[in-house]
Amino acid sequence: MTFSHKSVLLEECVEALNVKPDGIYVDCTAGGGGHSKAILDKLSGNGLLVAIDKDEDALKACRERLQGDNVKLVHSDFKNLTQVLDSLGIDKVDGILADLGVSSYQIDTPERGFSYMASEAPLDMRMDRESSLTAKEVVNTYSEAELIKIIRDYGEEKFAKSIVKSIVTERQKSAIETCGQLVALIDKSVPRHLKSGHPAKRTFQALRIEVNKELDGLEKFVADAVDRLNPDGRLAVITFHSLEDRAVKHSFQDLATDCICPPNLPVCVCNHKAKGVALTKKPILPSKQEQLSNPRSQSAKLRAFVKK
Questions:
Q1: Reported pTM
Q2: How many angstroms separate the CA atoms of 125 and 213, rounded?
Q3: What are phi and psi of 184, to 5 degrees?
Q4: DSSP sequence for 154-184
Q5: How confident is the model over 17-46, as pLDDT tens digits?
Q6: What is the phi/psi pair of residue 38, to 5°?
Q7: CA 281 from chain center: how many Å?
Q8: Which has the closest alpha carbon to 244: 283, 290, 286, 293?
């Protein structure tokens, strides 16, 4: 299957980064290379693009799409930004982009196990197929309490207890191995008259977040990224669910604040200095036209930050 993915908020991202022809830019989640290509098209021969992705299939697509001596492709997690830049001998950069969504290719490739629509697909959900933890392992080996917490907190699913009760009962008989098996358990656990959208959407989101540790270290990544920016350098982050957006929003607020001491302290003791300004008081959303042409963009939110 060809790696295809519609880049969300493409023009808005390039504008937020304010790309300079001779600058150094990092696309931390290159995917199919759409955002990377748009950045690369604005660079001169003196500019440099570093494209990172933890999915080897994505990097294969990028190798075909991103040509030139001023492109470096790296197989790694976006949270390893500091190590990647150090390994390339790069100190500071002019712009960093992170698109935290799952690619259309990953969703539409049944054997990747991301989609609740692929009934025969294995419960996998790994963005990096070299990692060991799969959704099957989470569903079949995590304790009842752990599963409830994950589905409730990461999926914001109010029927988490009922869903987990069905999972635990079923796995005592035999392992739950396919997306279809899990969907059937979820479907019977959610009251029919209270169903809104696909009943498995929130649970699958929760499992994907757990498998890929999507929230772990996100705020640290934002802080690390800002540290590696040149003055006037920009960080742009696209999120697809409220937990990610909240983490990015709060990180930007902290980085734009001079003092983060508790308000009851008479004097500042934190020595915290603002590192820049959030360019987006409210997130940038896809246009109605983009949402119609690419329904998967509907939940996307873009926030940007400029370093002092």
A1: 0.91
A2: 11
A3: -60, -40
A4: HH--TTHHHHHHHHHHHHTTS---BHHHHHH
A5: 999 999 999 999 999 899 999 999 999 999
A6: -65, -35
A7: 20
A8: 283
